[in-house]
From TrEMBL:
Protein source organism: Saccharothrix mutabilis subsp. mutabilis
Protein name, UniProt field: CGNR zinc finger domain-containing protein
Lineage: Bacteria, Bacillati, Actinomycetota, Actinomycetes, Pseudonocardiales
Xref: InterPro entries: ABATE, ABATE_dom_sf, Znf_CGNR
A family per Pfam: zf-CGNR
Gene3D superfamilies: Jann2411-like domain (1.10.3300.10)
Residue intervals of the Zinc finger CGNR domain: 142-183
Classification via SUPFAM superfamilies: Jann2411-like
Domain of life: Bacteria
Length: 184
């Protein structure tokens, strides 16, 4: 069973953005995002962050608090990108600082990339590097917030015309179409 399959089924829909750095933002946060917090213990962090990257992680108590500045910086940068606003200097500094740590080591196994088990600081570096790749590419202009009134998840619109509105056609898109059909 892959690590990502260990994430409870009812939580998995949060983690289908197309980018691990955006998936990480959906694990909770401060302020309005506190209600969605999933990362309370080292075991939670190993489960969810390990699941995002499909890797086994070793996590200690101090790691739980240490991940919050990166998650906040990524959330700010991604939500800003969805509105066409570049990331703040403070958020860029946090992302760059975390990316300077050695990342998880990729290896080739059965024709695919597999990450070698590691520590949470290595996983955070991997997520920060994914964010640098995303926010320095044309895809930064394709970061979106789901248009469903009751959702708000981030995603990368990889559709050819760039007109995708929902995080998932199977859930939010289908529900919106059903509401429209009932109202119309």
């Amino acid at each position: 069973m892959s690590v990502s399959q260990r994430i409870p089924r009812d939580q998995r829909r949060r983690f289908r953005t197309g980018r691990p750095c955006l998936d990480f933002t959906h694990t909770g946060g401060d302020g309005p995002y506190a209600v969605w917090e999933l990362l309370h213990t080292p075991e939670d962090v190993a489960l969810y962050v390990g699941g995002l990257l499909d890797v086994e992680l070793s996590v200690v108590d101090a790691d739980v608090a240490a991940l919050k500045p990166l998650r906040a910086a990524l959330t700010n940068a991604a939500r800003g990108a969805a509105r066409g606003i570049p990331p703040s200097d403070a958020d860029v500094a946090v992302i760059n600082t975390v990316a300077a740590t050695p990342p998880l080591v990729p290896r080739l196994a059965d024709g695919r990339v597999v990450l070698t088990p590691g520590t949470l600081p290595q996983a955070l570096s991997t997520l920060a590097r994914d964010a640098i790749d995303l926010f320095s590419s044309p895809l930064r202009d394709r970061v979106r917030v789901c248009a469903a009134e009751d959702c708000g998840l981030l995603f990368v619109d990889a559709s050819r015309p760039g007109l995708r509105r929902w995080c998932s056609m199977e859930r939010c898109g289908d529900r919106a179409k059903k509401r429209k059909a009932r109202a119309g």
